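Re: weekly structure request thread

Next one in the queue (70 aa):
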Amino acid sequence: MAKYDERHGGPYDRGSADSYYGRGYQPHYFVGATYQSNAVMIDDMTPEEVIAYRAGYDDNEEAGHFKDWG
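Done, posted below.
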């Protein structure tokens, strides 16, 4: 099983957060603090960064850890 950098704002973290909040699959990450630094979108991501985003998204989907909006 691969190990990904889970830095807040990084690709894995953003994938996990998008799944948790019920947002769709939209690979991206932040170069620094989330929403306080520049975002890198899929067209500018490396294949490894997209894989890390997908892993974060899929890991959270599998865990079933979703925001309770109720």
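The chain has a mean pLDDT of 96. The chain is about 40% helix and 10% strand.
Next request, please.
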